[in-house]
Amino acid sequence: MAKSTSSDAQMLIRSLRTAYAATPTNLKIIDLYVVYAIVTAVIQVVYMGVVGSFPFNSFLSGVLSCVGTAVLAVCLRIQVNKENKEFKDLPPERAYADFILCNLVLHLVIMNFLG
Amino acid sequence: MARNLRLLGFLALIYASLSISGAAVIRPINEAHQSAALELFVPINGSFGSLEETYEALKTFQILGVEKGAEISHATCPVVVEKLGSSLSTSKDLFHALRVNSILGCQIDSRTFEDVASKLQALIKDANSLLDFHYAVGGLLYIKDQGINVILSDADGTFHSIKALSQSDGRWRYDSNSAESSTYAAGIALETIAGVVSLADRKLDQSKIGIVKNDIVKLFDSIKSYDDGTLYFDEKHVDASEYKGPLSTSASVVRGVTAFATVASGRLNIPSDKMLGLAKFFLSIGIPGSTKDLFNQIESLSCLKNNRVSIPLILSLPSTVLSLTSKDQLKVEVTTVFGSAAPPLTVSLVQAFHSDSKDTPVLENQELQFDSENTIHYLDIIPLKLDVGKYTLIFEISLHDPENVNTYATGGRTSLMSFVTGSIKIDKAEIGILESGAGGSETLQKLDLSRDSTLSLSANHLQKLRLSFQLITPLGHNFKPHQVFLKLRHETNVEHIFVMESSARQFKITLDFLGFVERFYYLSGKYKIELTVGDAAMENSFLRALGHIELDLPEPPEKAAHPPPQPVDPYLRFGPKQEISHIFRAPEKRPPKELSLAFLALTLLPFVGFLIGLMRLGVNLKGFPSSTVPAAFSMLFHAGIAAVLSLYVLFWLKLDLFTTLKALGFLGVLLVFVGHRTLSYHASTTAKLKSS
């Protein structure tokens, strides 16, 4: 029974990988960016766990910048994805411009809060 | 400010001596008054202020013999001329202007005087208040002094109008409407009536003069007195609206009475003692502190100096302290109020009382000799065998010329206080330690109290300290001074003071330490001994350090009183204060630098991973536009984003939000424009690619 579960898991992962290989490159770039942002956030949380939460505002701004930019990247991915029927009429350049603008505003606020 | 303080201090000193001795130290007017006048009346920009104040200043200086007219006339004469020439001036303005002119002597032609005279005559006809009459009549008198012929047309009528305001007690009302009568107004009224009499064209009815004389006698019935024989006038009700103090009121009455006495024929029925009492009142003030008081004092004394009732003669002592050691003589001055010579007279010392024996006189009926060079009456006291102490001397003046008795007020018997001081001899001084108990041996050592000694005694609590000496006056009697104190001072500055008792012949003290153990707070150790003997009549009062005594007292029990804390030097509070140790909030624990740097490197690692991932995915720049203009816009777009991000870094490092927002606004506009161009070009390229 265990063996079948592990082999089921392996099969699941293999199919995921093959399916993922089919995604277009620009979406893969965005996914990579999201992963990078989240990993950075996790490292900051670990650091805070080690040394304590002083100064708290810096920790928050660091973590929130990573999380915020990850969220914006996810929005970009949704809007750019050609298989997404909802955003069929939205040109990807427009989505990209929104992404850039929102990131700049987010980082202004983050920089102000950084202290 | 300093001058006023000095004058106030002087006044306080005079007042203090008044209150202590009970009798005023009365001296005639002297240079001190002149310097006080110069200090109080100070012209500002060449003028003394209003014309009334100017008159007060000039009159005071004139009486005291100080020449001030030249300084003042430059600024004041134009004011005087203007007031006399103006048709808007009231009788009060004209009165003050004429008064000032009588001293300054401004250049005014007789036409002006005649105009003013006729104006004043008209005012008298319409006048109905006392002050209106006073100003008008006074003004006319001053004009008459200038040589203009002025006659009061209706002298009888004017007299009646003024007299109508008088009351039955000799006081006057200010006008027919006011209910209160005032002594000050009485003085003004008498002065005005005197003016009316002298301005009248024919002599007034003698009965009228007699009525006024009666009024004056009634007024003098209300005179008040202080204990030391000075007499003064004051208002009946102190809370009246126009209350002026005793000095102003008495000055006003003196002015009025002396002015009236000058014009009235026959004598005024005022006892000479009252004139002398008034003169003493003005002199007992000493040196007043205000200009008005000084003016009132000097002017009333000047009126009293040559008045027709009786001229006061002041008997005073130039110095109240006589020293036997320097063989002083008792000197007495008899002068007029201003210090000028009196008529020939003899002063005799009727009685002299020592303060110890107030009933039996020490001296009787001694006649003083006269030194005509210094105009002083003197008496040699050495042959009289007067001992030291405080004396009450009673003098009597007898005038040589019997006709002068009615002209001058000598005041019967005058009582004055005087001190006779001398050098006290200290004899048979002995000090020693005795054993307690009756049969103790007496080992007393002789002491020389004419200088400090450095004795070194020691005692325990079972012994006694004994000190005794005799005090002998120059005449050989026993002397009891006011202060005979023995002081023992411990090393810690705790002091104990003992009063020495006097027996029949000597002063002695026996300090039984057994009884004083608790009083000394059980403090053993070295005590400094000091002896003080002092008295007002003793010329050689002393404070002598006698040495020290080593006291051995038993241990204090638990409940013993602690010695009182000694006074701290009051200047210590200006020294440095105690150091304050501030308590700061403990700073937060920061991680070690290496750990933080390690995590910084760790945080940058994912970026490296991201770049590697990108390379793995085969990221390329093929989509970058090739033709120049779009390429430039693309470059600008990326450069703009990089600029904004570097602006953020600068913002974190050193800029503030406002500068950043300003720069961001500028960059943002640029970025939007460039971005729009680039992205629309990119979009159109992609669409062309798709369609083809």
Describe the model.
The complex is a heterodimer of chains A (115) and B (692). The termini of chain A are far apart. Chain A has one domain. With 115 residues, chain A is mainly alpha-helical. Chain A has four helices and no strands. In chain A, helix 2 packs antiparallel against helix 3 and helix 3 packs antiparallel against helix 4. Chain B has 692 residues and is an alpha+beta fold. Chain B folds into five domains: 127 residues, no CATH class; 150 residues, Glycosyltransferase, CATH 1.50.10; 108 residues, Sandwich (Immunoglobulin-like), CATH 2.60.40.1080; 140 residues, Immunoglobulin-like, CATH 2.60.40; 76 residues. Chain B is 42% helix and 21% strand. Chain B is built from 18 helices and 25 strands. In chain B, strands 7-15-13-9-10 form a five-stranded mixed sheet, with no helix packed on it. A five-stranded antiparallel sheet of chain B has the order 17-16-19-23-22. Chain B has a five-stranded mixed sheet with strand order 18-25-24-20-21, with no helix packed on it. About 1% of the residues of chain B have low confidence. Classes of the chains: A mainly alpha (115), B alpha+beta (692). At the A-B interface, helix 2 and helix 4 of A face helix 16, helix 17 and helix 18 of B.
